[in-house]
Amino acid sequence: MDDIVLRLLGPVELVHEGRSLDLGGPRQRVVLAMLGLNINRTASTEQLIDAVWGDSPPTTARGQIQVAISTLRKQFARAGRPGAITTRAPGYVLDMDPGSVDSLEFDRLVARAREDTRADRIAEAAATLHQALELWRGPALDGVPDGPLRHAATHLNVTRLTVLEERVRLDLMLARHEEVCAELTALIGRHPLRERLYELLILALYRSGRQAEALEAFQRARKALTEEMGIEPGPELRELAQAVLRQSPALDLPASSPEKGAAPLPSGQSDAPDAPDAQDGGFRLIPRQLPASIGDFTGRHTELDKIKDLLEPCSRTKTPDYAVPIVDISGPGGVGKSALAVRAAYEVSKHFPDGLLYADLHTASGDGQISALLARFLRALTIPAKAIPDDAQERAEMYRSRLAESRVLVVLDGVTSPEQVTPLLPGSATCAVIITSRARLAGVPGVRGIDLTVFDMANALELLAGIIGRERVQAELDTAVELVNLCDALPLALRIAGARLASHPHWRIEWLVQRLRDERRRLDELSYRGLELRSTISLTYRALPPSAQRLFRLFSLVQAPASPAWVAAALLDCDFASAEDILDLLVEAQVMDTVQYPGSPRPCYRFHDLVRAYAREELCAAEPPEEADAALARVLGGWLSLVEEAHREEYGGDYTIIHGSAKRWRLPESTDVEPVPQPMTWRSGERQALVTAVRQAAAAGMHELCWDLALSSVTLFEAKGYFDDWEETTRLAHEASARAGNRIGQAAMLYSLGTLHMYQTRMEQAEECFDTARQLFEAEGHDHGRALVLRNAAHLDSVRGDDTAMREKYDEALAITRLVGDRIGEAHIMRSLAGCWLASGNIERARTLLEQALTISREEKCRRVQAQVLQRFAELHLAVEQPRQAQEALQEVLRIVRGTGDRIGEAYALYGLGAVRRQEKRLDSAADTLARALILSRQVGERVIEARSRYSLAEIALTRGDYELTATHLAAARDLFAELGSTSWLERTEDLMVEAGGPSAARSDGPQPHRC
Predict the structure, then answer these.
(1) Of 100, 155, 196, 484, which has the highest C-beta tally within 10 A?
(2) Closest Cα partner for 891 from 859, 929, 948?
(3) For residue 92, what is the enclosing H or E element?
(4) pTM value?
């Protein structure tokens, strides 16, 4: 062991030869504590910054951490350990003997005491726990500010209290009841809602000959629980009080130590007699073991009705007459399964006059405990203790025989496996069983499942109002709604939050909400006097196999609202089938939800926020930072791989786009999953996850991946009109590239942002972006990127009417795309040039370009550009008065764009069909089609088609003599064309306004566009 000791169980201290070293200010203590909690493991610089400053680190944070590390190194050097703190990417490691860290020494002593207990060395175990608890000098990490270290401190403090309870239990086994009474009374003063402390105190008082005081302690416990939490004491505490009242021999100290190897029983259960041998005073004792139903039970009316329908003899329609009705209420921890089971049991109790049996199996495990529970049930059913066989199988047989033809309801709360249930099932159909479990118990024959989910908003607010008062909820209704959402509408979380507010009537709900908004502190805030949510989630987590625990931890890295199953494969870097199997374990354990998107053959998966917060804590505690970073990189690389493949399917290859060098993660070829069956469909359903992936890549500094992912996503954003997503992801990726000095990334994002400005008719901003992007691409020698910029910059020239500049840019872009092999880029430019020649009357030149473009798009199987070329062909047919050919082309366009989900393309096609029908003099049909084009263009933000549809509708209205409608459409069209800077269309609009209402009608009040 080192001669230098790190103390964390109290104020943070570094002690050398019995003297506390000067650590300096609180910053050094926080850094040392974080290193000490990760002894011999890397604590990243980011973790240290987060521990010191939380969400608001200064710009000099890294430098200040280095200064703190330097100060600590000097102290270690003075103590003869100059190399104690070493630098190891991505942070620092404190190298010390675990025995020199008091928190680890505490863990070692507790583990040794548990071994002694299992070996029936009770005195040695108690002495060891006394020694372990003497290491504590106060609350763990005392004086450390709020932040990540508070989570660790809370965990240590809870562990200390649990160990203290175990030490007292061992002291009681050693007949030290007089000695522990005062200590327990003081502990209850600090933890007034901790039922286990009351149990120990009541037993200690009773064994000290103080029965009245023991009963008084129970009344104090009941008062504290009902006043503070609105709940009755648990069954263990109530059974103990009843045993004290009747002076049950089971409470007396055993004559000898517990038999070596005997399985410990769940709290409050005993294999000794606790009831009269069959008859007591000449009457038969009917067991009524249900705990009290909570007074503010809320909602669950549908579930209650279903349970009564399944259990009440008069309404059993789904259970055969010879079968025992069994109901399993399953759901995540804290959702209210136990409360519902008890409430339902009371509501059907009149149908079971022979008894109500209840067992809490949350902590029960192993055949020994189930056998002991059978003995308790048999005694409750008036079987003499001496008549109960020792063999577990024989006990189960006697239990079924005793219940034959009886009408008894059995409630088994907190079942963890079907194996626990089977021995406890009655054999007679006159009985019934209610089970609660986290995972669905499909393995129990004949079970009827009821899945319990979180509250809806109305019931959640009703529960909150029942705890803190309706007036407080109504006074801050919006804030109360946010509180419900922060609690995931989970009844246990709401009950804890409500208890905190109820105990502080001067608090506003907003105050608690502000604290809950910080996800890192949320589980700490959802804790109140021994009642906490963290332990509820932990119970499920600890029961998972190691592979599922690791996926549970790693899934907290994913910030998307829901994720497909391949994300789990990426996190674990394993095959798809194995990942799905492990995901199923998390779903069965009710810590992971599934989401089914319309049209998707497979579900997506998600955490509730509170579960994610706990998973994040476990991730930080158990997963090395470098492994967590690698897992996140695989997930983001997987999104890039899929969106890249989607673009290839849409365009026939890596056309009209550039890519970076970021590493992709691809599903193994052996998988039978086809992740991209319909590119535009799958990405629409998972759009939020895609946007979140860009955010996470930017936050993690993965700039190369970030810009590539953002650019590859434009296909979806542009076709679906997701312009907000387009802008957010592009700006994030541009900022990430700029921070990293990634000039290609900056250029690509400026090109993308300029294209967005162009679509949204912000022509000046678009031109600025294109100019800068072109300069960057030229400086980096990236010809393909420069060609893409030239292509779109030429469109700006076209809008302004600068045909010379437009053709120069198109010609240069066309030459480069041919050189780099971008065939679809080539076809797209030829289509645009064809439009220019068509506008100038050169029909044959336009036709030749369109035929070449159509051939390329068909050869490359790019239906998207094929539709755009056919749209231009329809314009050509209209120009030469071939409406039938134009209509055929446009019908084909509609089939393509509707099949791919291209809503902007659909708006263009509808506008073209309206123009065809107008040329055919079918004005009613033309007006209907143009109206649909107008509605759709406004929905997707396609202002060019919106303006042109307005103009065409004005022409039809003028033909019909509806001058008011004509003026409305023309005024809107004029404003749009002016904003677009479309000179020729603006002139046509103003000419039509003159024709419709005189020259004054053509005057525009807005700014006039530049005319070439």
Answers:
(1) 484
(2) 929
(3) strand 91-94
(4) 0.62
Q: How far apart are CA 53 and CA 57, in angstroms?
A: 5
Cβ distance 878 to 916 under 8 Å?
Answer: yes
Q: How far apart are CA 229 and CA 836, in angstroms?
A: 76
pLDDT in tens, 482-518: 999 998 888 888 888 888 888 888 889 998 898 888 8
3-state secondary structure of 204: helix
Task: Answer yes or no: are the C-beta atoms of 876 and 838 closer than 8 Å.
Answer: yes
The tokens describing 561, both together, are 């609202």
Between CA 347 and CA 329 the distance in angstroms is: 16
What H or E segment, with its residue span, contains residue 458? Answer: helix 457-468
Burial class (CB in 10 A: 0-12, 13-18, 19+), 955: buried
Please report, for residues 155, 191, 199, 453, 821, the alpha-carbon distance to residue 527 in angstroms, rounded to integers and kept in the order given: 12, 12, 21, 21, 63
Q: Could you read off the pLDDT of 271-280 as tens digits, one per residue?
A: 433 333 333 3
Taking residues 198-227, report their average pLDDT: 89
The pLDDT score that the predictor gives to residue 1009 is: 32
Question: What is the separation of C-alpha 563 from the centre of its chain, rounded to a whole number of angstroms?
Answer: 9
| Alpha carbons within 13 A on the beta-carbon side of 450 | 27
Q: What is the identity of the amino acid at 946?
A: E
The larger pLDDT score, comparing residue 701 to residue 381, is at 701
Among 832, 865, 866, 871, residue whose Cα is nearest residue 849: 832
3-state secondary structure of 5: strand
- Helical segments of 652-686, H only: 679-685
**H helix or E strand, kind and range, residue 755:** helix 743-759
Identify the three-state secondary structure at position 656.
coil
Residue type, 57: P
Return the DSSP state at 342.
H
Q: What pLDDT, on a 0 to 100 scale, did the predictor assign at position 1006?
A: 35
* 350-360 residue pLDDT tens: 888 888 999 88
Q: Report pLDDT for 365.
A: 58
Query: Per residue in 659-689, pLDDT tens?
Result: 999 999 987 664 444 444 454 555 455 778 8
What strand order describes the sheet that includes 432-437?
355-360, 408-415, 432-437, 326-330, 447-451
Terminal-to-terminal C-alpha distance of the chain: 86
> C-alpha distances in angstroms, 985 versus 133, 553, 810?
85, 59, 22
d(CA 884, CA 522): 66
Residue 252: count other Cβ atoms within 10 Å of its Cβ: 11
Are the C-beta atoms of residues 342 and 411 closer than 8 Å to each other? yes
- Only one residue has tokens 């577990």, namely 392
Give the Å distances, CA to CA, from 746 to 656, 706, 750, 770, 790.
17, 11, 6, 12, 16
318 DSSP 8-state letter: S
